[in-house]
Amino acid sequence: MKKQLVAIFTVLALFLSMGTFVSAETATDEMKKTIEKGIESKHKDLKKGSLTLSDIETYPNEDSELEASEVTVAIANYDTVRDNIFYFDHTEVVFYDADKNELLAEAAVAKANPKIKDYKKARESELGTHMDWIVVTALLFMLIIIPLFILTVWEKRQYLTTKFKIDNNLYNQTKLYR
Fold first, then answer.
1. Which of 120, 110, 31 shows the shortest CA–CA distance to 66?
2. Number of Cβ within a 10 Å radius of residue 134
3. Of 72, 87, 94, 141, which sits most exposed with the smallest number of CB within 10 A?
4. What is the number of other CB atoms lying within 10 angstroms of the CB of residue 117?
5. 58 touches 70 (CB < 8 A)
């Protein structure tokens, strides 16, 4: 009986794990290029090839003012690099019109489908910008270490002319007060 329950549970887990991979939509190359161009117009320091799209879903358009039959919504993850020092990881919701092959603004799709708002609210905790602090912290650490090095190690090894002149009686002193 125990073996049968384990076998049933294993088969059930196998089917459930396969189902999540099968139901996910994938981004076309055309969609990815369009979204990358739109993001690059907003962020001039976009790192090439860093864009990844996940959680792609397509919703029918219910807004008569928007000229699209359906709106594709995805989570875009991309990196930006400023001055080769400041690294940022961005995560945001992007809206895509497959008919016209263009990136849509959030204001344009606000009335398209109420499920789009639910999609964004469900993933709100994932969205935002994260800065990589390692390089900045290392530079600030160097601001402390370099002066300490100069004060402790390098300064002791400097050649002192006054000490040399006193040792060799170049000041014409007859007595040394030490």
1. 110
2. 9
3. 141
4. 13
5. yes
Cα angle 36, 38, 39 (rounded to 5 degrees) comes to: 65
pLDDT (tens digit per residue) in 119-147: 999 999 999 999 999 988 999 999 999 99
Of the chain, the end-to-end C-alpha distance in Å amounts to 96
Q: Which two tokens stand for residue 98?
A: 């497959």
Bridge-based pairing of strands 70-82 and 86-97 is: antiparallel
Calpha distance 103→39 (Å, rounded): 9
- For residue 82, which amino acid is it? R
Q: What per-residue confidence (pLDDT) applies to 74? A: 94
CA 26/CA 96 separation, integer angstroms: 13
pLDDT digits (tens, 9 = 90+) for 72-90: 999 999 999 998 889 999 9
